[in-house]
Write a structure and sequence with these properties.
Helix content: under 10%
Low-confidence stretches: 1-41
Distance between the termini: 87 Å
Shape: elongated
Mean pLDDT: 82
Structural class: mainly beta
Strand order of the largest sheet: 4-3-11-10-6-7
Number of domains: 2
Number of helices: 1
Strand content: 35-45%
Number of strands: 14
Largest sheet: 6 strands, mixed
Length: 229
């Protein structure tokens, strides 16, 4: 049996890492005076997140704040995240991991032959994004639930906790290109029947400029009248 399955089995045998207000499960003594093992999972959860097969209780998301021509921000998601519940993968199970704080969730494969769930990404947000699990800065509490559970004697649902930090970085972002469009007054939307600029009725044409940001967003830079000599 692999180490992750052994870990899950130990959690089942101990009834999970339930929250104990008197002892908190940290190296105290259980019934009968026997020492309790110090848990590796949060004492309020019976599920564990993994990054590249390493158990984690917290992670840091990198947020880039853009200034300059194209202000805004972007979040770089954390990839290769998986999940292990108190009940190990088996059969044709799937597991739904839902963030109680955001409502976002991910529905992943959790079948036999796996040591953990199918991998997914974590990113900042408030909604469900398929293979993305949305989180917010600070403490995020989750509920997990098995679908097509194989063993009715094992837990089908439980909880997990993940702490999220933000690493803010500031960057300048300029236009990747600037587009110009010239047309006679009133003919902006005439794509095939525009009057030649030197024949504009009122003696001038309009020059319109538009900046294109690296992410594809467009910023209107205004227009001006160009009079013929």
């Amino acid at each position: 049996m692999d180490p992750l399955t052994l870990l899950a089995s130990a959690v089942i045998a101990q009834g999970g890492y339930g929250y104990d207000q008197g002892n908190h499960g940290y190296g105290g003594h259980g019934p009968g005076g026997y020492p309790q093992a110090t848990p590796t999972w949060d004492d309020r959860s019976d599920g564990q997140f993994f990054e590249h097969s390493q158990p984690i209780q917290e992670l840091t998301l990198r947020r880039i704040i853009y200034q300059g021509d194209c202000p805004g921000e972007s979040i770089q998601p954390i990839k290769n995240i998986s999940f292990l519940a108190a009940t190990p993968p088996a059969g044709k199970q799937r597991i739904v991991i839902r963030n109680r704080r955001t409502g976002g969730y991910t529905d992943r494969e959790y079948d036999g032959g796996r040591s953990k769930s199918e991998r997914f990404w974590i990113s900042l947000g408030t909604k469900q994004h398929g293979s993305f699990l949305a989180v917010q800065p600070g403490e995020n509490q989750f509920r997990w639930k098995l679908k097509k559970a194989t063993n009715p004697e094992l837990p089908r649902k439980g909880t997990a906790v993940l702490y999220v930090h933000l690493d803010d970085q500031v960057s300048y972002r300029s236009f990747s290109s600037i587009h110009e469009d010239a047309y006679c007054p009133g003919e902006k939307y005439n794509s095939t029947t525009r009057t030649p600029l030197h024949k504009c009725q009122f003696g001038y044409y309009v020059l319109e400029r538009e900046g294109v940001c690296p992410n594809g967003n467009k910023v209107q830079l205004g227009n001006q009248r160009i009079y013929r000599n």
